[in-house]
Amino acid sequence: AKAAIHLEGSYDNTQPTAQLEWKNGQGQAFAQGGFRLVNNQIIIPQTGLYFVYSQASFRVSCNDGDEEGAGKRLTPLSHRIWRYSDSIGSRASLMSAVRSACQNTAQEDNYGVGQGWYNAIYLGAVFQLKGGD
């Protein structure tokens, strides 16, 4: 089998110190060919080229009736993939994206009051990674 890993994340925003937790073996998540998930980090099985991808899906309410509704259209949402390697000695950003969470017009906001809007950020590229990264 080819080396591959696909994880699903869960996030509990009711916890004050919540962070994304990666899940393996649940839903569509799996790991094969030497990939491991250790302490919420993927361990690369061997040096080579890897297609790294991530999708962050989110739902936001862009208009809740307060006076700052227009400012919410400018709320940034960032999405970043980090790499840690002993050869580097620290973590480094592999790829990132930033977008405004609310991108709809005032008319669309009125249509979607109370429902929120669904959107996603997708990142994907090929990288040379080392075994153990």
The helicity comes to under 10%
Average pLDDT score? 82
CATH topology description of the largest domain: Jelly Rolls
- Counting helices, strands and paired strands, the structural category is mainly beta
Cα end-to-end separation: 21 Å
The low-confidence runs, each spanning 5 or more residues with pLDDT under 50, are: none
Shape: globular
Q: How are helices and strands ordered from N to C?
A: EEEEEEEHEEHE
Q: How many distinct beta strands? A: 10
Strand order of the largest sheet: 1-4
CATH architecture group name of the largest domain: Sandwich
- Tally of structural domains: 2
Radius of gyration: 18 Å
What features would you highlight for this structure?
single chain, 133 residues, mainly beta, Jelly Rolls, 2 domains, two-stranded antiparallel sheet, 2 helices, 10 strands
Descriptive account of the structure:
There is one protein chain. The protein has 133 residues and is mainly beta. The chain has two helices and ten strands; from the N terminus they run βββββββαββαβ. The longest helix has 6 residues.
Short description:
With 133 residues, the chain is mainly beta. Helix content is 8%, strand content 49%.
